[in-house]
Every structure is written in structure tokens, then in C-alpha cells.
Amino acid sequence: MSNITGKPIETGIIGGSGIYAIDGFQLLEEKSISTSFGEPSDSYIIGELGGIRVAFLPRHGRNHHLLPSEINYRANIYGFKVLGVTSIIGITAVGSLQDEFPPLHLVIPDQLIDRTVSRKPTFFGQGIAAHIPFAEPFCPLLSKQIYDAATPVTPEISKGGTLVTIDGPAFSTRAESNLYRQWGGDLIGMTTYQEAKLAREAEICYAALAMVTDYDCWKEESADEVTVTTVVSNMHKNSANAQAILTGLLPQISTVKTCHCNKSLQGAIMTNPESIPDETLEKLRLLIEGTLNTPKG
Predict the structure, then answer these.
(1) For an engineered disulfide with 161, which of 37, 142, 186, 267 has Cβ 3.0 to 4.6 Å away?
(2) Residue 199 parent element (H or E)
(3) Of the listed 42, 110, 186, 214, which one is catalytic?
(4) What is the pLDDT of residues 173-190, one digit of tens each?
């Protein structure tokens, strides 16, 4: 699908409402999309930067009124699929579980641990079973492109790390924080796991740019700093770097995919196509018609 001027929108960005306040960004339209999985967090903000079309989505709504577990992750990712997006960058605020990732550091994680219990983590079910490969939850190609764009902007950037996703909205207890450290966790946040998993099911490349805001509460001398005030303040300090990284990154995102993200449903669907209920088939047609070779209705 294309926007009003017919040019394709291939890149999506999920983040706070300030992320798209980039110098040189030309707003073209705001597009509301209703999906078969409900309503996304907000309208998609579609614009152009350096000749590249991009769609932004405020993860929590532009007034930040959605808790992490209230976000309709399925609708958000499905909406990007409707727009024709093939790569998504998730900008996310995280706490650090390790000394090597201090506040204001940027990290491109490569692994995830899911500690959420109250979310809908898949498009499938209701008569269709699919099991995607997810050993490497972030697109390696897109992650490298983010890192390459970030290194000229700031030396405070690291590639690799395990991000633990929790339900929230409260921050962790100290016992939980230390447990995640023992598991090998490097970062902690409240949103990334579902975005990465659903993007993989939708055969969209996904990578994250994590902005460290605090040391979580394991570091007792810094525990009092894990407050909304501190998090928001450090997010704002990091936003200028994030904007500069996106400015350099967008023209470099390859439309030729050498990764396997866009083939993740090949062999993943176990259900006989003839057994899939019509209602479920129609609901998932955009995601699976190329895999099942289902006729268009």
C-alpha cells in the first residue's frame, strides 16, 4: 500500500511522540487504520525525510495514556503491514541491569526474555496453529544498519545485549532485578518482546534502539533514581541522538532483504488450509495468503 502521493512506505518507527520531531521531516498525512485485531495506539504519522517515506506510531498514544499492557501490539504491527512497511525500528526506554550500560547509553539488543503474563503475543489461534523460528528475535541486518548509523553520532552505543520485558506498570522489586541479572539480563523494559515477536509473525524486519534511562533498582546507590521524573528526563536527553541516528539511518535501510525475516512463515503453519475457519482465514489473509496461496476473496 502507498500513501496519498503513491510513493511506498517501507519503514516504520515505533516510539514516543517526540521522535518524529526530526529536523527536515515533512509531515504528509496522519492515517487512522482499523484492523481485524482492533485499534492501534494512535494514527500513523506519515512523512518524508531525505526523500524516504516513513510511518511513525506513538507506542503509548501521543498523550502517553496507554499502559504497557494496554497497548494493542497486534493492531500496531498489523497496521504497519497494511501500510506496506517491511522494516520497523522500535525506539524504547530501558533500565540497565549491568554497570557497562550506564544511563544515557544506547544499546541495540540482540536477545529477549519475556516476563509478561497478560498480553496477546500472537496473531494465530482460533483454528490456525503456527510456530515461527524466534531464536534470533531481532533482525540482524536492520540491527547492524542501526549500529552503523549510530556510531558517527555518539560513542555511547553498544551492539548486543539481552532485554527483559516485564508487564509493569510498576518498576521491578530489587529481588526481581537481581534475578534478571543472574539470568544474564542486560536491560529491562516493558514493551519490546511483543513488538519483535508479532513483527516476525508478520514477516517484517524488526530491531530496537534502546535508550538507557536508569540502573533499575539492583544498584542500591542508584535505586532512588528509578522514578518517572528521571526516566522522562533522560529520555529527552537521548532523543536528540535518536533523531540524528534516524536521519542517517533511513536512507541506508536496504529494500533488498538478505535476512530471513520476510520468510518466517514458510513451513511455520501446521494447520491444513482447508481446515482453517473462514472467519480466521479472512482475519489473517494479509499475513498468510502468500504462504498458503489462498485465493483472494
Answers:
(1) 186
(2) helix 192-201
(3) 214
(4) 999 999 999 999 999 999
Q: Let me know if 216 is a catalytic residue.
A: yes
pLDDT in tens, 61-83: 988 899 999 999 999 999 999 99
CA 187 to chain centre: 15
Residue 99 annotated to the active site: no
Annotated domain spans of the chain = 11-292
Q: What CATH number should be reported for the domain whose range is 11-292? A: 3.40.50.1580
Catalytic residue among 42, 148, 216, 278: 216
DSSP line for 14-40:
EE-TTTT--TT-EEEEEE---BTTB--
- Rounded distance, CA 103 to CA 95, Å? 8
- Model confidence, pTM: 0.93
Q: Would you tell me the crossing angle of helices 73-83 and 278-292 to the nearest 10 degrees?
A: 50
CB neighbour list of residue 65: distance below 8 Å, 6 or more residues apart: none
pLDDT < 50 stretches in the chain? 1-4, 294-297
